[in-house]
Structure formats: C-alpha cells, structure tokens
C-alpha cells in the first residue's frame, strides 16, 4: 500500500520504518528532518501525501495536525483515510472527522521510544468498525496491540485517560522514593521492594533506571509532553464538569518541573522537582511520642 506519513520525530521515525519493513511504500513529510529512515522516501511538501491511499500523522499538537489535513490533504482522492496518531485530544479529532473530503480516525499510542523501535507499543483506535478493520493490518505493523475504543475521538479520550493515570503513577513513585530516603532507606533497595509489591505495575519496573540513574538513562517520555497530554485531559475533564484532584496535583508538579527547566528531561525527573521543593534531609532523631499518646 502507498502510505503517507507526517512527523518523523522520536516516535514517528521508527513507526514509519516499520511500515516500510512490512512492505508498504512510505512517503514521509517532516520539514524538520533532512533524512528519512531506510526504505522511506522523504517528500518536500505535505501536499505530496495527498497522492497516497492512506496517510498517518504523528504530530505534536492539534494545530499542526489540523493544518496538515485541511491544507496538505485538500486534494486527496475519495475514500482516503487519515489516521491521527499524535495526542491531540478528542475535540479536534471529531472536528476533523466531520470534514467531507477525507475520512479521519484517531489511533494514538501508549509506550516509550524504545517500545516504538520494537513495535511493542499499544494503540487505541477511534473509528467505525469498517474503518478499524481496514486500518488494523497497517497499525499492526507498528504496534503490538490494537484496541477499537469506539467512534472517532474515542482513541484520544482513551489516551488522555491512560496518561492521567500515568502522570499520577509517576508522581506517586517519586513521592515514595522521597519518603523512603527520608527514612534512610537505600533508594535502590526501596525500588526493588516497590517493584515486587502490590504497587509494582509494569511502569515501575521499566522506569527503574530513569528514577535511580537519570544521568545515564535515555529520555523516554519528556516532562513537557506529559504536561501537554495532562493539560488536554484536564480540558476534557472541565468540559464534562469533572473534579479530578489527583490529576490537578500531578499537573502542578509537572508545571513546577517545567519551571525548573526540566521540560526536556524524562518524566521520572519530577523527582528532581519534588526534591527541590523539600528541605534537605537531616539525621535528627524523630520527635518523641507525646506524653499520654497511644503507642
């Protein structure tokens, strides 16, 4: 199949390469890169993607995605499908799905750069049943699991809900490490305990080095990206008049991390932001139990 791919960033680049490796002819557009992956053809304009049967965008925000579809894909043939795989939120996806000349569905992904490189990420798809059946083989070349979440926009809703949980979990791990350190536990020993406890989610396991040795660990998901996604999640919550105190707390910590210049750092480095806002540890003896208190 002739496939157009817009966005050869840290996630998009390996995804486009997987499509080519699966036997598809891939035309890629990204004005910020000078070289495409092997077997992927780099084109000079977004409009060149209009000649493809199906196109995919892995772009950082809704404005870029809207511009690509409204301007770059204005001349597509009838029946052209476009898959929005960047995290842009359900409102924009549904707006674009209402366009008359192109079929738009969403399939944002969950997973890190290393998982994208091994095609082990998960995608959640907002589409009709017929659209899902049509695009699933294409998505399977880039992802390990494909879930049909519902109509257009549902994939983006699922992604925002997942990342709201992820942001809260990331903060909880960081706070647990701080508490363990305050009690003079070795952080590595505590992390082993945490990984094998009831709270030992897969995220806890694969983020070990990001928390304990950030200086030597590649960035998987930057603070700025998680902040953007959680902001979209809170906009969705506001639209539905939901009060999400945990997500609000996580958003505050992410804002602190961005203010500290940690936007490009891995999301695990909210631990650094929290450390900066807590007093240095001392080795003072804990206060004695007040007289008359239960022991």
From TrEMBL:
GO molecular function: NAD binding; NADP binding; oxidoreductase activity
Residues at the catalytic site: 159
Compositional bias annotation for Polar residues: 285-295
Domain 6-phosphogluconate dehydrogenase NADP-binding residues, every copy: 3-148
Superkingdom in the source lineage: Bacteria
Region Disordered, annotated ranges: 274-295
Keywords: NAD, Oxidoreductase
Domain 3-hydroxyisobutyrate dehydrogenase-like NAD-binding: 153-273
Presence of keyword Transport: no
InterPro entries per UniProt: 6-PGluconate_DH-like_C_sf, 6PGD_dom2, 6PGDH_NADP-bd, HIBADH-like_NADP-bd, HIBADH-related, NAD(P)-bd_dom_sf
Family to which this protein belongs: Belongs to the HIBADH-related family.
Entry-linked PANTHER family: 3-HYDROXYISOBUTYRATE DEHYDROGENASE-LIKE 1, MITOCHONDRIAL-RELATED
Protein name: 2-hydroxy-3-oxopropionate reductase
Native source organism of the sequence: Nocardia asteroides NBRC 15531
């Amino acid at each position: 199949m002739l496939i157009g791919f817009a966005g050869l960033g840290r996630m998009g680049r390996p995804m486009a390469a997987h499509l080519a490796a699966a036997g598809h002819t891939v035309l890629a557009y990204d004005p910020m890169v000078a070289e495409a992956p092997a077997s992927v053809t780099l084109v000079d304009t977004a409009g060149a993607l209009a000649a493809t049967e199906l196109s995919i965008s892995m772009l950082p925000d809704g404005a870029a995605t809207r511009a690509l579809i409204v301007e770059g894909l204005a001349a597509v043939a009838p029946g052209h499908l476009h898959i929005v795989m960047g995290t842009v939120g359900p409102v924009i996806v549904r707006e674009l799905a209402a366009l008359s000349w192109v079929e738009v569905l969403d399939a944002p992904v969950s997973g890190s750069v290393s998982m994208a490189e091994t095609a082990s990420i998960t995608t959640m798809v907002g589409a009709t049943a017929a659209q899902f059946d049509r695009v699933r083989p294409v998505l399977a070349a880039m992802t390990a699991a494909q879930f049909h979440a519902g109509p257009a926009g549902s994939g983006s809703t699922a992604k925002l809900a997942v990342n709201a949980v992820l942001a809260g979990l990331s903060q909880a791990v960081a706070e647990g490490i701080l508490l363990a350190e305050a009690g003079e536990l070795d952080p590595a020993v505590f992390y082993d305990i945490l990984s094998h406890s009831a709270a030992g989610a897969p995220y806890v396991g694969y983020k070990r080095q990001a928390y304990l040795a950030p200086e030597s660990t590649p960035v998987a998901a930057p603070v700025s990206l998680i902040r953007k996604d959680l902001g979209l999640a809170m906009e969705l919550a506001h639209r539905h008049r939901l009060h999400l105190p945990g997500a609000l707390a996580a958003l505050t910590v992410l804002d602190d991390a961005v203010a500290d210049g940690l936007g490009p750092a891995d999301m695990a480095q909210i631990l650094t932001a929290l450390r900066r806002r807590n007093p240095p540890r001392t080795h003072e003896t804990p206060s004695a139990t007040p007289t008359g208190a239960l022991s």
